[in-house]
Amino acid sequence: MISSNKLASDEQPPAQGALRRTLSRLLPVGFAVVGIGLSMVLGHLDAKREQSEEVANLAARLSGVRGALEAQLRAAFAEAEGIAQLISTDGRISDSHFHGMARDALASVSYMHHIALAPADVVVDVYPRDGNERILGLDYRGLPEQMPLLASAREREEPVLAGPLALYQGGRALVYRRPVFISGKRGVKFYWGNISIVADIDRLLLAAGLRPETGFELAVRGSDGKGAEGAMIWGDEQLFEHALVTSSVQVPGGFWQLAAEPRGGWSGLSLFCSPLFLFALSCTGLFSLFVAQLNRKQRLLELRNSELHQYQVQLERLAHYDTITGLPNRVLFQQQLSEGIAQGHGLAVLMLDIDGFKQVNDSLGHPMGDLLLQQATARFLQELDSQDRVCRLGGDEFVFMLQGAQGQVNHQVRALLRCLQRPFDLNGNASLVTGSIGLAWCPQHGEDVDSLLRHADTAMYAAKESGRNAWRPYQAEMTDRLHQRLELERNLRRALECNEFELWYQPKVDLFSGRLEGVEALLRWRDPEHGLVSPAEFIPLAERTGLIIPLGERVLELACQQLADWRAGDGLPGPLAINVAALQIERSDYVTSLASALERHDLPASLLEVEITESLLMESQQQACAVLSQLQAMGVATAVDDFGTGYSSLAYLRALPIDHLKIDRAFIKDLPDDDDAVAIARAIVDLGHALGFRITAEGIETQEQYDFLRNAGCDHGQGFLLGRPMPAADLQRWMAQYPVHKRQR
Ligand code: C2E
Ligand code: MG
Ligand code: MG
User: Fold this and answer.
1) Do residue 585 and residue 663 come from a single domain?
2) Which residue's CA is the nearest one to ligand 1's atom 20?
3) What is the pLDDT of residue 17?
4) Whole domain around residue 558: which residue ranges?
5) Where is the domain boundary, 474, 496, 523?
6) Pair (519, 577) in one structural domain
7) Which residue, by CA, sits nearest to atom 5 of ligand 1?
8) Are residues 465 and 500 in the same domain?
9) What is the pTM of this model?
10) Residue 445 included in any domain
11) What value, to the nearest 5°, has the Cα angle with vertex 229 and ends 225 and 230?
12) Closest Cα to residue 439, out of 409, 418, 394?
């Protein structure tokens, strides 16, 4: 029906956006997983490299130990060879010779304990004797723990290294047993016996560099040269369990096994000790964090961009739509209208003003006024076709662009007026309003946005002036009238500056006694060019332009001045009624102005009476009510003027601070012949009295009207029959003649 906001076309589909958001959220996690994997691989390789370096280092050190051990063993047992060589030639060696050689050997090898000669495996000599006497005569064949090894040496004709053994003399020792053979005739070999060299194993190992404080853990096994089969010789047996670095030491008749491990275990074996792994892991962490942060910033940026998009949409709405009704505003409507004009099919522009909207706002409050606008909008939309447009210009003004043919548009205009006449339900308050519509046709009344809107507006004012609840098509004369009004406005301003205003006075009489009750001040403008101008011509304009405020002040001043003059001259015609416009009450401190005018001229308040028209009273109830009650309290009488034209009820007026009702001339002019007029006049008089008002009839022109009203009980009357409005000087003359006049009737 009515065009609404266009969705931004560049917006992403929600599913795609959600997928993108999930992916970007997973991105840092992905980086972390891949990074940790790579770090582990790198770390693992690094640990392996470290470990092999460590193994190689240790192996090199272990081979040093092995070399030292083998050297020590060789040094320790080499002496046996010389002695064995000597014996093997003829099966003998002199005691002195043996002792001499043994002494030299013991002197050169500090940890050598003793050397023993055992022909036929029975010890016959030992050096040194001291401390070793116990072994002289020892028969190895009676030693089951030593014999098998000795037997194998004999069999293989090679020396063996037994031990470590516990020595009879105490301590732990290695025993080098060298089988000795004597070569007989024809190359036959005879077993002679053995030479044993006993060395302190712990000192030997120490000499080879095996110390507890070595930079690494070391273990030696292979007692009796049995290698892995042999018992532990030195160090912790557990080193052999997962030994990565091992080595063999050749010993006579077999070998020893060495195992080494860095002190405190293998450092390079742990992944978490790899600097490369830790470095790669830190890099991964930092990079993932960086990506996550980047992602977050990106997401924040995206979020802001949507936020921004929403603001744009909101701004777009604010710039082009009315917040109360949701209708396009003036800016958008002007675009729509110029597009409509460009199509060249012809169209109608309607300006609609809701009559009585101000009362709703004043009496029920702005929220109810807004509700009425919304309900009215809903009703309007039902009367429009899809190609029609409507906008709210502001306040209670709407403008329409109707694109149908003339007959259809006329029909729609009437429907719009009708739809407003149905009561509005404003949260339980029934409200009645009407509409005034001005209509301008394109192209007859204008071919551009401005002139069409202007002409529709001019026509709408004509509809309002015609009495509201009406519509008027634009006519060129309306613009002429508008120009006249503008001219009039200029002249009015000048008139105010030049004091061209004066008051005329119309008598008000008591219909029973015929006594003069007072006078009403009626404003006149003595225009130097046009002569006397009636208030009916300039008061409405003064009200629309706000000039009524200074004008009203002028009236107050003139009225009070006149009262003061009459008092001074002893020709007071009674209280003086002045007319007041709604705007004066709404926009100025009227009570204060009035009080100060009275004070300036030293007048009692009872000499003034204030008239406010019924329709204006209805338009500005709250303020008017407050002002009227203040005036009453001061002693100023109050009157409702033109009663019967403003749709108020008597019961309603009763609640207002009012003393007099003035029946509008419209109800008097058809008296006494028109039955309706008679009924209305009687009803107003009777009901008005019942509610405590004094009733005045306006516009009495005939004696019949006078008589009827008098008989109907109306209190006072005004009219040409009794006296026309006249300048003050004329009034004095009129008053002088009046009793005569009265007597004549
Ligand atoms: P109103 O207050 O109802 O005044 C009565 C109008 O009816 C006056 O017209 C008066 O000349 C006219 N009139 C009185 N008797 C008869 C009669 O027998 N026959 C006919 N045909 N007319 C009669 P006027 O003076 O032209 O004033 C018109 C309206 O202008 C007043 O109506 C009042 O509403 C407004 N007005 C006049 N003076 C002032 C003023 O000082 N301030 C304001 N705000 N409005 C004023
Ligand atoms: Mg009046
Ligand atoms: Mg009147």
Assistant:
1) yes
2) 699
3) 67
4) 488-734
5) 474
6) yes
7) 698
8) no
9) 0.52
10) yes
11) 50
12) 409
